[in-house]
Design a protein that fits this description.
212 residues; Rossmann fold
Length: 212
């Protein structure tokens, strides 16, 4: 594909050289790649926030884009790295479940391949920078037309992120504030359609304060 889109989502922060190093690896393989920074401000190793962010961002992208996600508390361990095709989107992501919540009802089921073919990696591979040494070069090769099925074996099991769910007691729907956005909006784990389960006009309480 000419000028392929590769997006980056990380917890590296804007001031570090880490995202720049990943871009250098990708462009070294494919100078025509269009690299789009989704965010480098995911709170460090915060899988809940990463899941929330990806659910809000990725579905709006064209299907030919390739999304590289590096929010990776398990780096340096035996956790796997994955190539995923799901709901028409393509991702390269650690096997920590941050991508699974927004796709749990996807049909057909995701195609998931464990990255196991070192010929597509950068060597030597750092124990703590798989974003640069594995995910970025794999993204570069995929953007040049490499068949994903050559990256490693297809797998049927992967880590699933399980967010806390709201609870419904008689006359009371209880959830929690997950995040506060930069405008001060409280993002809860209560879906809007759940309010239809309550009779009458709902009253809202946050901590000890009633919110109207």
């Amino acid at each position: 594909m000419p000028d392929p889109i590769i997006t980056l989502t990380t917890d590296f922060g804007e001031e570090s050289p880490y995202a720049a190093a990943m871009k250098g690896v990708i462009l070294g393989l494919n100078p025509s790649a269009r690299i789009v920074d989704l965010s480098h401000q995911i709170p460090p190793q915060n899988l809940a926030y990463a899941a929330f962010f990806l659910a809000g961002a990725i579905p709006s992208f064209p299907h030919e884009a390739l999304h590289v996600i590096v929010v990776d508390p398990g780096v340096g361990t035996e956790r796997a790295l994955l190539y995923v095709e799901v709901a028409g989107h393509r991702l390269l992501v650690p096997d920590n479940g941050c991508w699974t919540e927004w796709t749990r009802t996807a049909n057909p089921a995701p195609l998931v391949i464990r990255l196991a073919e070192p010929r597509y990696w950068r060597h030597p591979v750092s124990a703590t920078f798989h974003g640069r040494d594995i995910l970025a070069p794999v993204a570069g090769h995929l953007s040049l037309g490499v068949d994903p099925r050559t990256l490693g074996p297809q797998v049927e099991e992967w880590v699933r992120y399980e967010p806390r769910r709201p609870t419904l007691d008689p006359g009371c729907l209880a959830g929690e504030v997950m995040f506060v956005d930069r405008f001060g909006n409280l993002i809860t784990n209560i879906p809007g359609e759940a309010l239809s389960m309550l009779a009458g006009t709902p009253r809202f309480q946050v901590g000890d304060e009633e919110v109207r």
